[in-house]
Amino acid sequence: MTSKPNIPFNMTDQHRAGLLPEPAELGFHLCYGDPGHKHIKEPDDVGVSVTFANAFHDQIDRQVNWIHMPVPRDCSDDGYFAPLDDIKLRPETDLFLGLVHLTDGVDGAKQRIGTATKHLTDFGIATECGFGRRPPETIRALLELHGDIARLTI
């Protein structure tokens, strides 16, 4: 079942986005919160993220350069990615799916990419939550994993 929340994105938020002058890039990391690398709420699907992305599309007058959507490691089913069918992106907006996980490597990412491409074919890859809180000794392996996944032919 696709999530369809009411997103409280309003004119004030639109105004704030407009405060960042171009050519500075504007991007959004859509986060579920992850204290201790655990989501505050595990998402049922990318529906909430798609709703936010569509609100950005409809309500922000300036260029949105990128949007990042987290993809939990255990979410590789078709239902999780189905809301991507309804995403509205401008040509200049890059979408990044945070489906790279050090814990299941290339095989897990390949499975998630394969499912996601049934709904959207033009996206970049990223980690689910970035690099900021990672132990420094994991960064090299994570960067190498990004390279390995980016070189995949699926």
Strand content: 5-15%
Counting H and I runs of at least 4 residues, what is the number of helices? Answer: 5
Low-confidence region ranges: none
- Roughly how much helix do the residues carry, as a percent range? 25-40%
Radius of gyration of CA atoms, rounded to a whole number:
16 Å
What is the distance, rounded to the nearest whole angstrom, between the alpha carbons of the first and last residues? 27 Å
Question: In what order do the strands lie side by side in the largest sheet?
Answer: 1-2-3-4
Name the shape in a single word.
Answer: globular
- SSE order, one letter for each helix or strand: HEHEHEHEH
Structural features, described:
- The protein has 154 residues and is of the alpha/beta class.
- It has one domain (26-32, 42-150).
- Helix content is 32%, strand content 12%.
- The chain is built from 5 helices and 4 strands; from the N terminus they run H-E-H-E-H-E-H-E-H.
- The chain has helices at residues 11-19, 47-59, 78-81, 105-116, 139-150; strands spanning 27-29, 66-70, 94-100, 124-127.
- A 4-stranded parallel beta sheet has the order 1-2-3-4.
- It is globular.
- The relative contact order is 0.15.
Features:
single chain; 154 residues; alpha/beta; four-stranded parallel beta sheet; 4 strands; 32% helix
